[in-house]
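Write out structure tokens for LysR family glycine cleavage system transcriptional activator.
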Amino acid sequence: MTLRDLPLSALRALAAAARTGSLTRAAEELGVTPGAVGHQIRQLEDRLGIKLVRRSGNGIVLTRAAERALPDIDRGFDALASGMRRLRFERQAETFTICADPSFASLWLAPRLDRVRTALAGLDVRIVASVALDAMLEEGVDLAISYRRGSEQDLASIDLFTERVIPACAPSLLQGHARPDAADALDRLPLLHIDPTMGDDVYPAWRDWFTAAGRQPKSIDHGPRFGLTIVAAQAAIAGMGALLASELVLKRHLDPGHLIEIARDVPALTIRRRLVWPVHGPKARRAAAAAKQLAAIADLAIDGALPVNPIAASSSEATSLLTAYCQELRFAPPSSPLRSFHFG
């Protein structure tokens, strides 16, 4: 039998039915209807001239002929899956994958990708949504921009910058409010939420803000929820409520006055973004060089980011590693200590 003659769809249906013992569950696994699974199996039976399954109660069982052939069919699909993984790995070898929360990636990272071209010469850049830092190698991510921490023995990191997380709303919501900078400015406003399970996962929640302000209003967890800050900002501009988000991400709406910062009397919360890469990743040296260039950009004036301070001594290992990687790539190592931020 030639490759052209292999009925792969029918064999997949048979393997799924054998695995689940049910046409319905096999259909759910394959994303088709039970009727389609049954039709594929019947076509395979007609083609081969033998019975492959029979009804048993509410399910199905394999005939002896199908049972004997199933291990070979399973090994064949395992080999195909292995081949696909190998092809995907070859594709990954030609790309450099950066993960970041979508709103930050679209507003800050994407416009600055030209700045890291020299470090990534010959590689196509791919930007994906945030992944768990401990899963970077498994997910094929070469560099992460994240506020989270992973297992430090497997990751190198340097600080990018710290952002203020501020409450903001449309000016129309504050009409008649005499003190928009006071903490009680939020008492009468509906709250918009960034849901960390839906996209952007970097921000403190409203509960964190009210705790820091020493206030506990009612209905703190109620209100519309959004996966992306850039979408939630549009809802805030439309007057749907107050939003707690990064000043850097909101700045494009704050400058023209579409949104205004409120409750300024309460010290702003902050998040610290870091550049993180797997020490033993296949592109660790490229990642270190790209991180160096992105950190250099952050050392310039970045709207919405806090001023930099000398890096803490605890980051000396990351500095040494970064310098070593840059030397291997013939990049000039940092001439001054890497810079970091302290939470406000």
